[in-house]
Specification:
Layout lengths: L1 H13 L8 E9 L10 E4 L7 E2 L5 E6 L2 E8 L6 E7 L3 E2 L2 E3 L18 H4 L5 E5 H6 L9 H5 L5 E3 L7 E3 L7 E5 L2 E2 L4 E2 L4 E2 L6 E7 L13 E7 L8 E6 L3 E11 L3 E10 L1 H5 L5 H4 L2 E14 L4 E16 L3 E17 L4 E18 L6 E19 L4 E20 L9 E2 L3 E15 L4 E15 L2 E6 L5 E7 L4 E19 L2 E12 L1 E4 L10 E4 L7 E14 L4 E18 L15 E17 L4 E15 L9 E2 L6 E10 L4 E10 L3 E2 L2 E7 L2 E6 L5 E2 L3 E11 L7 E9 L9 E6 L7 E6 L6 E9 L1
Parallel strand pairs: 1-7, 1-8, 12-17
Antiparallel strand pairs: 1-4, 2-3, 2-5, 5-6, 9-16, 10-11, 12-13, 14-15, 16-17, 18-19, 18-51, 19-20, 20-21, 21-22, 22-23, 23-24, 24-25, 25-26, 26-27, 26-28, 28-29, 29-32, 30-31, 32-33, 33-36, 34-35, 36-37, 37-38, 38-39, 39-40, 39-41, 41-42, 42-47, 43-46, 44-45, 47-48, 48-51, 49-50
Length: 774
């Protein structure tokens, strides 16, 4: 398989030896006011209509043309376009700052470029959002939230009312790879999912891949959420933040060395616990309930070809009732990146990445005191290179070596406690990959994006490893020493996408991709919880595999002001994991005996209409889909709806800029109820009612719908100071969306059972936030 990758790479490199000699124009595009590198800015040559490129994730671009005189067009949404004349007789380096627009007519809150790139690009199933767009969407308690905004896009479904968890095209919540400056974030939620870990003040760019995944990404089946942090202002020092009803935030940024290096520090904290201290109840007064997060980033550009970046995230939730229990959980990430421009054709990014997720659960009750802990540590070395071979080929290739260190769980207790000390063995392993891909413009109408990823999982000792049969019984046991190979899996993951443009406003696209996953989440709940358990592929657990095909029609109209797309997809999944009925997952030394393995399938239609420019813009997204699972030990080995199966899913988002000071927004959602399992019978044992169940997920919760509205008032302009007010109402008409349904004996009608529906938000929730910057 490695030989296949090398042969593919050499074949593509050989293509550079053919064709007319051309010269390169390359450089970096930045924000003139802050020095921030602009991702996705467009560079075109007016005299060559089919030419064009976009800056990469680090603001770098490279474009080729024969010797001659040309007019270069530089554009980026929300910025003044730049026209530059050039006489091309050799390779040229042009670094260009762009200025933001100030005229109201051109206010744009979309990250997409003002052209038809969505038509000609072969990439399918990709959604881009910028912070201007996210900041306008009304959300719960006024907290700007990336994950809740993403859930308003087609093919993406929220895991529950107020929850930041999400499902993509039928995949489970753990099948989404969430990256913050290339570091994996395992639990991306605060406060049991009501808020995400991403402070919007610290975020620059958000890209979600839900189909046709580029070969440089891997490790998850359903999607990649790639989030880039702000780099900091290398021109001037600024302070900005906001005061809300339940939290406050602040960001400080400025130059380390003007025009060469900068820093950014952003922090956020809730203060519900401060109000608890005012309680007359001593238990409440001594309790804790808060979260905080801190984002930090610094960079330094040695010259035009070399730059280093350091970034980190630190976040924690603390929840506890005095004298009863306490729990805390959080993420820590760190990334060191080095960018090097070898020449106008070759660009490299080298990263060393650290990621940690851990939780602690404690009980302080007499005779029942204990402390349960778990954590996962990752260290990753990653190398990505981009080689522009000419107008028609852009080659990307690289590798990563990722080491996992997982401590599934430990329980420690006092000598008087009724709990025993338990220590589950640590697990160690490497998850490595190499990839190569090429974007090839075959002609004016046809573009291909194709490549392959070679991934491997290597489980290592030390430890004792059991092998289980289908009933969960141990069939063999073997001990391994430190570094000894226990089990390995190697998979080849082909990726292919193509676009065929009928004209400047219409295209058809097709994609196929295979993904594998070697880190698995074990959970008894429908949404992520702090105590969820992560395990690696092992001698019992095989890598999950998903194959997805999709095709679609893409159309722009009214000078690319509107975008429309219709995509259909089919995904089939192997080696899916579920728990057996009554499984015990927390701090279980034989947790793999509690699992069962099967397959899945998901298919659907996604419709998306988006208005990108002007005073009024927004989108309408609709998904018609089916998601099913099949396990030998569940439902008699017949397909049944997955918990996240939702037939209809509709979202409408509108944003209106009334004038320079006032803007208004609203969103409406409707969705079919999730699949649930209801009892089909009951019997009495010792005076207690016990329910019996048959078909898994054979019923539905009632459908959900909600309307949210928001408004932003910009303060009067001052030379060195600016402020604004953000107002919002979540759940305007106080609709009771169902969160769960439970069953109990009726208290009024003997011998009957009644269903009890629970809603998290049964009323409207107002919010107000004051924002400032100076």
């Amino acid at each position: 398989m490695a030989k296949t990758l090398l042969a593919f790479l050499f074949l593509l490199l050989a293509l550079t030896s053919f064709g007319q000699k051309k010269f390169a124009i390359s450089g970096t595009i930045t924000d003139a006011a802050t020095g921030e590198q602009l991702i996705g800015a467009t560079v075109r040559i007016k005299e060559l209509p089919q030419s064009g490129t976009a800056t990469n994730s680090y603001g770098f671009y490279s474009i080729f043309a024969p010797e001659g005189n040309y007019t270069l067009l530089y554009t980026y949404t929300g910025y003044e376009p730049v026209v530059k004349q050039i006489s091309l007789h050799k390779n040229e380096a042009i670094n260009l700052p762009l200025k933001t627009r100030t005229d109201l007519k051109e206010v744009v809150i979309s990250a997409d470029r003002p052209n038809n790139d969505n038509i000609v690009s072969p990439q399918m199933g990709v959604e881009k959002l910028n912070m201007a767009q996210i900041n306008q969407v009304p959300v719960l308690l006024g907290e700007k939230d990336i994950l809740k905004t993403i859930a308003l896009l087609p093919g993406i479904k929220s895991s529950g009312e107020g929850n930041t968890g999400f499902y993509v095209r039928g995949g489970a919540s753990d099948q989404n790879l969430i990256l913050l400056d290339e570091a994996t974030v395992y639990n991306a939620s605060h406060f049991f999912g009501f808020f995400s870990t991403f402070n919007s003040d610290a975020v620059k760019d958000v890209t979600l891949y839900k189909g046709g995944m580029p070969a440089e990404f891997g490790g998850r089946l359903s999607s990649v959420l790639d989030i880039k942090m702000n780099e900091g202002n290398n021109k001037d020092y600024t302070v900005q933040g906001g005061l809300g009803l339940i939290s406050s935030r602040i960001k400080v940024e400025g130059p380390i060395v003007q025009d060469k290096g900068s820093f950014m520090i952003s922090a956020r904290r809730t203060y519900v616990d401060f109000f608890l201290k005012a309680s007359s109840d001593s238990i409440v007064r001594g309790s804790s309930i808060y979260f905080y997060d801190l984002n930090a980033k610094a960079n330094y550009h040695f010259d035009d070809k070399n730059a280093i970046y350091l970034s980190g995230y630190f976040g924690k939730d603390v929840l506890g009732l005095k004298g009863t229990f306490g729990t805390n959980w959080g993420n820590t990430t760190g990334t060191i990146r080095f960018n090097h421009v070898f020449n106008s054709r070759l660009f490299s990014n080298t990263s060393v990445i650290f990621s940690n997720y851990s939780y602690v659960v404690q009980s302080f009750l007499s005779n029942e005191d204990f402390k349960a802990t778990s954590q996962i540590n990752d260290v990753n070395l990653k190398e990505d290179l981009a080689y522009v071979m000419g107008d028609n080929h852009t080659l990307k290739f690289g590798f990563n070596v990722l080491h996992h260190d997982i401590a599934p769980g430990n329980i420690s207790s006092s000598a008087s406690s009724s709990f025993n000390n338990i220590s589950v063995q640590k697990r160690y392993g490497f998850e490595n990959a190499a990839y190569v891909s090429d974007e090839w413009k075959a002609n004016n109408n046809l573009t291909f994006l194709y490549g392959v990823r070679l991934s491997g999982m290597f489980l290592l000792g030390p430890g004792t490893f059991n092998t289980y049969d289908d009933a969960g019984n141990v069939t063999s046991t073997k001990a391994f020493t430190s570094g000894q190979l226990v089990k390995s899996y190697v998979n080849l993951e082909p990726r292919f996408s193509a676009s065929y443009t009928l004209n400047d406003a219409n295209s058809f696209k097709f994609s196929y991709n295979r993904n594998t996953q070697n880190i698995h989440l074990l959970s008894n709940s429908t949404a992520n919880t702090p105590t969820d358990l992560y395990v690696m592929s092992s001698n019992n657990i095989k890598p999950e595999i998903a194959d997805q095909v999709s095709t679609g029609w893409f159309k722009n109209f009214k000078d690319n002001t509107y975008e429309f797309s219709a995509e259909v997809y089919y995904k089939w999944m192997q080696n899916q994991i579920d728990y057996k009925d009554g499984a015990q997952l927390l701090v279980n030394q034989d947790v793999e005996s509690q699992l069962t393995y099967g397959s899945g399938r998901a298919y659907g239609l996604e419709l998306f209409l988006k208005k990108k420019y002007g005073r009024f813009n927004g989108w309408i997204g609709y998904t018609l889909s089916k998601t099913e699972r099949k396990f030998p030990q569940i439902n008699d080995d017949h397909y049944y709806p997955a918990t996240q199966d939702r037939t209809h899913d509709l979202s409408v988002v509108g944003i209106y800029q009334l004038n320079k000071r006032w803007s208004f927004s609203a969103d409406f959602i409707y969705g079919t109820g999730n699949a649930v399992t209801y009892p089909t019978g009951k019997y009495n044992i010792g005076g207690l009612t016990t329910y019996s169940y048959s078909e898994r997920n054979g019923y539905r919760l009632p459908s959900s719908n909600r309307l949210d509205i928001g408004a932003t008032l910009e303060g009067k302009q001052h030379k060195k100071y600016h402020s604004s007010w953000t107002f919002g109402i979540y759940n305007v008409y106080a609709h009771r969306d169902p969160y769960s349904v439970t069953f109990r004996d009726s208290k009024t009608v003997p011998n009957t059972t009644e269903a009890v529906e629970t809603s998290i938000f049964a009323t409207l929730i107002p919010s107000v936030t004051w924002n400032f910057k100076f």
